[in-house]
Design a protein that fits this description.
about 100 residues; mainly alpha; about 0% strand
């Protein structure tokens, strides 16, 4: 893989992979500093760990309390066998707007 990386600097990744008979996906998968997926070998795990990035919540997202209320409604006996779309339509027909 090191040879393919050196050659890629000169002729480009696609040409280097073709010349070395290495799939481009494998080339990119083995790059240092790349996060590992669940099916990969551990190898050099320390250099492949992705940095933690805090995910921002959308300003339009339900609050935690509203989310729990909706889940309780969806799991209630009345709506347990219906899809969320059916529950939404039923509640709209009754004049209730939940979220």
């Amino acid at each position: 893989m090191a040879a393919a990386q050196e050659l890629a600097l000169v002729v480009g990744v696609s040409s280097a992979c073709r010349a070395m008979a290495v799939p481009r996906s494998t080339y990119y998968r083995r790059l240092p500093g790349r996060p590992m997926s669940s099916g990969e070998e551990a190898g050099d795990a320390a250099s492949r760990v992705a940095p933690k990035v805090a995910l921002r919540r959308s300003p339009r997202a339900l609050t935690e309390n509203e989310e729990w209320q909706m889940l309780a409604l969806l799991h209630s006996e009345r709506f347990m066998d219906r899809s969320p779309g059916q529950v939404y339509a039923t509640l709209l027909d009754e004049g209730q707007y939940m979220c």
